[in-house]
Amino acid sequence: MNINNAVDKAFEGKSLKEIANAPVDALQGLSEKDAKALKEALGISTVADLANNKFVKWAQAIVALAESEE
């Protein structure tokens, strides 16, 4: 995976630690307005907060398990 395809231009070339600690709008497709909404609704400020959010983890687990459900 080319990480530069996942982040805004300002974050291309940054370390993964820097990106993890960056605001969520560092990710391509998320605006400052989206970042504000995530902060207000779920307390998510950084890329790491988003990745570690319990709702995100639950959704990922449900989808992964659904793929093998009979």
Outline of the structure:
The protein is an all-alpha fold.
Plain-language structure description:
By secondary structure, the protein is mainly α. The chain has one domain. The protein is built from 4 helices and no strands. The protein is globular, with a radius of gyration of 14 Å.
Please describe the biggest sheet, giving its number of strands, its sense, and whether it closes into a barrel: none
Secondary-structure element sequence? HHHH
First-last Cα distance: 31 Å
| Number of helices, where a helix is a run of at least 4 consecutive DSSP H or I residues | 4
Backbone shape: globular
Helix content: 40-55%
Tell me how many strands there are: 0
Give the uncertain stretches in residue-range form. Answer: none
Strand content: under 5%
- How many domain units? 1
Radius of gyration: 14 Å
